[in-house]
Write a structure and sequence with these properties.
This protein has three helices and four strands. By secondary structure, the protein is of the alpha+beta class. It has a four-stranded antiparallel beta sheet with strand order 1-2-3-4, covered by helices on one side. The longest helix has about 35 residues. The protein is rod-shaped, with a radius of gyration of 37 Å. The N and C termini lie far apart (about 80 Å). The model has no long low-confidence stretch (mean pLDDT about 85).
Length: about 160
């Protein structure tokens, strides 16, 4: 009978040792998670974390709003630019004339054309709205407009 009681006591001591070992492991995990704080500081730590989380959420909301404003403004900026040089007259040397297309993300902007000849230089500007002009475009202007429209507004590699 004494052997049975000693056996039960040894098993009880082993269970207590295992539980103590798990308790120490849990305390180490809490210290890693909460830093070197006292057991009563858990509530304060949680309140502090929630306040910090609320502040981060406010900042994220503000940044999201600012990003939307920037994205809207950026879509209206000059992004797609192309130029074509050409020689409209056989009696002048070189490609002194040019057409320049300047478009935003919505393919709106203008085509600027400069025709250089012996008698002088003439400059024309034709507005472009969503890829189309109310004015008739020359072949060079159509070419420069198509080139500009093919340019992408998003970067693929950052």
């Amino acid at each position: 009978m004494v052997i049975a009681i000693v056996g039960i006591a040894v098993v009880g001591l082993l269970i207590i040792a295992a539980l103590a070992w798990r308790l120490l492991a849990l305390e180490k995990r809490f210290q890693l998670a909460l830093g070197k704080s006292q057991p009563g500081d858990l509530e304060q730590k949680l309140v502090s974390n929630f306040k910090e989380l609320e502040q981060v959420q406010k900042e994220l909301t503000h940044l999201t709003e600012e990003y939307a404003k920037l994205a809207s403004a950026q879509s209206l900026s000059s992004q797609k630019i192309s130029i074509v040089r050409f020689n409209p007259f056989a009696d002048t040397g070189g490609d002194q004339s040019f057409s320049l297309a300047v478009l935003d993300a919505h393919d709106s902007g203008y085509v600027l054309t400069s025709i250089h000849g012996r008698q002088g230089t003439r400059v024309y500007v034709k507005p472009i709205d969503f890829g189309k002009s109310k004015h008739q475009l020359s072949e060079e202007e159509k070419q420069v407009l198509q080139q500009a429209q093919k340019r992408t507004t998003t970067r693929k590699e950052i």
